[in-house]
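DATA SHEET
Item: assembly model
Revision: 1
Owner: S.N.
Input lines:
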Amino acid sequence: MGHFRIIEEGAFADFEFEAYGDTLEDLFTVCGKVMFEVMTDISKVEPSREMQFNIKAESVEDLLFSFLSELIFLKDTSKYFFCDFVIEIKERKILHCISRGEPIDRDKHELKTDVKAVTYHKLEIKHNDKGYHTRVILDL
Amino acid sequence: MEKIKIDDYTWEIPKGTKPGMKVPARLITSKELLDQLDEGVVEQITNVACLPGIRKYALCMPDGHRGYGFPIGGVAAFSLDGGVISPGGIGFDINCGVRLIRTSLTEDEVKPKLRELIDILFRLVPSGVGSKGFVKLSRPEFERLVSEGTPWCLKKGYAWKSDLECTEQGGVIPGANPDSVSDRAKKRGLDQVGTLGSGNHYLEIQKVDFDEQCDRSVASVFGIDRPGQITVMVHCGSRGFGHQIGTDYLQSFGPAMKKYGIHTNDRELACAPFDSPEGKAYYEAMACAANSAFVNRQVITHQVREGFSRVFGKSAEELGMNLVYDVAHNIAKIETHDTDRGREKVIVHRKGATRAFGPGNTELPEKYRQVGQPVLVGGSMQTGSYILVGTAMAKRLTFASTMHGAGRVMSRAAATRKIRGQQLRDQMEKQGIIVRAASMRGLAEEAGFAYKNVDTVVNAVHNLGISKKVAHLTPLANVKG
């Protein structure tokens, strides 16, 4: 399982948070959910449709950057909000994701602030006996 | 870090304060604002001072605040020969900028129709997450649009001829090449032309006022000639197209940095030599994004003219809806400046900073050449904005750059803990400002108290002389993305 904390003293114009997960998959899932929570109340998004994608990257940080960037791309091109992710990560460099959500519906979904991009600023994934931890800044 | 006072509005962090600094860093700010400055800005601007080929100083404007990579308000010029270009020195929202449309209407004429007007503009200019514009484009047409910039709008009937000369660089950055842009970026941008976006982007109906420091003779050259005159300000950028280009090149510059042996203190400062194939490709893609942003603001202008025309039953021409100017505040541009190596061509990065050409600059339209470039400062929704004018002093001190907005002092998360969107909307209505927002939470994030006092920030650039006050713009109604 995972959880997160908003860093209020962080990048003023953007959105900075810390995320924790027992596994890398948990950590990535939390990050995906937090990102969509910035854009809408994800409890109102139904996981009625799904999209799948694969990502390869040079490092686990690049993998997280590409994963979140892919979700932003899918949000803009398919006009979907996502609320649920089934993630499989191999060798910290290969990711398979099933993203579940539904088309954006202004009558049903609260619009919050759009996420423009993921940044590399301070992006680092750490691992200790409690699990995985990262800090992410999203550009809003 | 120690800051040495150079004059009342300039503070220097000497080269050598941080290992790797190639030039000093300079904070353009008043003592009052300096005392409130977040140390994160100092950390970030000194990181910029470490980048290869940087000239003279790494500068931060008085509205500066902590960002990622470069601080917001950062200005840095790099040699074209051995210097770098950095996507992090421009930001993801390439050519985010501000434009101002003037009208011949007065406050008295607009006030009774303000609600009708803002409702129609809210419908005509889509905003918020997932919005689509009305311009339907094929892929080849979109590629022409990003190559041609604002002149594309003239061909399609979305621009007046006079709009072109009143847009920075005529609304087209030369060298744009769609082949240097990924398919993903084109896909993301295709249906977003004419949309406002979200975050701090807005469309605002304002009225003009002047304080004793405003230069009214310059104001009349800009077509701003009386208190109570109505203007419309548009603040937005290159939407998903630019954001994707920023993302793509940030990723591809990682390996490029290894190849060229460049190390930075923050991965978000990823860069490549300007004259390398990677640097060249980014410049070509950035120019496409910048052109798309000029087009975006131009198409929005077309819609604003349409909205006013419907409400007042007169043509936009009859309503005197000319463009005052359009400035880019997230961009890198090739310009000639005096540096520590004499006069040379440099690539000036402005991230949350505005170009401020002074009188006589031949790049300015003839009608403004005698007085200097209009500088448009978008303040917060509650406190108002400014028209300034560029100066020769800016050319000498700050690579012809000045401030761009009020500058945040509080994170979005902190702002939403202090006020709810509905509460803020009621407060603003009492203040006489009507708001239509795609997102109520987004509205709360933009509350006036989350920003520095724009008057204090403007005073710093005015007193230093890197731009001068021309007019103040008070918000009357706001469409918030």
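QC remark: Chain B has 17 helices and 19 strands.
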